[in-house]
Design a protein that fits this description.
- The protein folds into three domains: 94 residues, lambda repressor-like DNA-binding domains (434 Repressor (Amino-terminal Domain), Orthogonal Bundle), CATH 1.10.260; 49 residues, no CATH class; 41 residues.
- It is elongated and about 80 Å long.
- The protein is built from eight helices and two strands, in the order ααααββαααα.
- It is mainly alpha-helical and 217 residues long.
- Helix 1 runs parallel beside helix 4.
- Strands 1-2 form a two-stranded antiparallel sheet.
Length: 217
C-alpha cells in the first residue's frame, strides 16, 4: 500500500487523464478512523490485529505502508469494507468470480469482449472442429471488437456473460424451443408421433447433421 498524500496521476479506463488533484488513499486517516470508532488505543488495535504496537505506530506516522489484506482485516474490525470508486464516486464492482471459462476451465481473456455461444465470430463457419465440444462462449479480437463497438453492438462497460448467466440463458432458450415444439405438436399431432429429434436438436433450434428425423424442429 502506498503512503498517503500527494496527487494521484494516471488514466481512466476510457483513456482520459485522471485529475491531478485526486488524492491518494488516506491510509493514516482510515486507521485513525477505525481506532476512533472502536475506541481503541494503538496497543489495543495491535492486539486485535496480532501485530506489534510499533507496527501500528509506524503506519500512523506514515513511515510504513500496509498491505491490502491487513487493511481489509483492520477495517473489518469496525464493520467496514474496502471499495474501489470511479471518478464520479460510484463503486466499481470487481469482475465476478464466475467469469466465463472455456471447456478446459481457463478464464477467457478479460480485456476482450466475451459473447454468448450464439454470437459467433466471422471465422467460425470456416473454422469447424468436429472433434471438440462447442465452446461455452466466444470472444472477439481487438479489430472485430472495435468495429462492433463503433457500431454500438457492444458497450465498453459491459463485462459480458458469466458462467451462471450463460447457463441460465441456455436453459431459457431450451424452454422456449420446447414450448414452441409442444405448441406445434398440439396443432399437428402427426408431427408429435413422427418427430424423433434429440435434445441437442431442440437446443440448436434445428436438426443436427446426423439427426434421423430431419423435421427441422
Amino acid at each position: 500500500m502506498e503512503k498517503s498524500g500527494g496527487p494521484l496521476e494516471g488514466r481512466r479506463s476510457d483513456g482520459e487523464p485522471v485529475a491531478a488533484q485526486t488524492p491518494r488513499f488516506d491510509v493514516v486517516g482510515v486507521v485513525l478512523r477505525v481506532r476512533r470508532q472502536l475506541d481503541l488505543s494503538q496497543r489495543d488495535l495491535a492486539r486485535r490485529l496480532g501485530v506489534s504496537h510499533a507496527a501500528i505506530a509506524r503506519v500512523e506516522a506514515n513511515r510504513n505502508g500496509i498491505d491490502v489484506a491487513d487493511l481489509e482485516r483492520l477495517v473489518g474490525l469496525a464493520g467496514m469494507r474496502l471499495a474501489v470508486l470511479d471518478e464520479s464516486g460510484a463503486e466499481m464492482a470487481p469482475i465476478p468470480p464466475d467469469w466465463v471459462r472455456d471447456n478446459a476451465g481457463r478464464r477467457l481473456p478479460v480485456h476482450l469482449d466475451v459473447r454468448p455461444p450464439d454470437d459467433r465470430p466471422r471465422s467460425r463457419p470456416t473454422d469447424i472442429h468436429y472433434d471438440r465440444a462447442e465452446p461455452n462462449a466466444w470472444y472477439h479480437h481487438r479489430a472485430h471488437r472495435d468495429e462492433r463497438r463503433a457500431r454500438g453492438l457492444h458497450a465498453v462497460n459491459d463485462d459480458g456473460p458469466t458462467t451462471s448467466a450463460l447457463r441460465f440463458e441456455a436453459q431459457r432458450r431450451l424452454r422456449d424451443r420446447l414450448e414452441r415444439a409442444a405448441s406445434l405438436a398440439r396443432r399437428d399431432p402427426i408431427l408429435l408421433d413422427d418427430c424423433r429429434c434429440r435434445v441437442d436438436c431442440w437446443e440448436a433450434g434445428d436438426c443436427a447433421a446426423d439427426c434421423d428425423c430431419e423435421c427441422g424442429t
